[in-house]
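Today's session is about reading a structure prediction critically. Students often jump straight to the picture, but the first step is always the sequence itself: look for stretches that repeat, for charged clusters, for runs of hydrophobic residues. Only then move on to the predicted structure, which in these notes is written as discrete structure tokens rather than atom positions. Here is the chain we will use throughout the hour.
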Amino acid sequence: MASRDFDVDAFLRQPLTARMATSGPTVRPVWFLWEDEAFWVLTGPWARLFDRVKDDPKVALVVDECDLATGRVRQVIARGPAELVPFDVPRGRRKLSRYLGADEAVWDERFVRYLYDDPGERGTMWLRLEPVSLTAMDLSYSVASSGK
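Below is the predicted structure for this chain, in token form.
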């Protein structure tokens, strides 16, 4: 399923921003949770992503990093059909705390609402992508010293 040149699970546990592509084509940045061999993205009827996936579930997702100072360049590319599944608060808390920290008291109200509003009323869902293909590559390079 994957070409792995580095610890993909450790890489995907970092609070990186992914880019998700849907039919159209449309590409948008997303926060994600990598859990149970799947990407979990929070969505709902307020988001265009929600409608696009309902119309055509084929998606691609890229998570990458490029650090010019160190030469570290790594990427994970995932493809497959996404599905919309019911939102659950424990997974939502795990996802949001990755990006916002453990102290919910300092989170912006927009994010706190996901955990305490009624998901059925608000329409909050998970977009779940269990990749059919997953490619991980380490394209890092050595940085030449400046000689100082």
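Discussion point for the tutorial: The mean pLDDT is 90.
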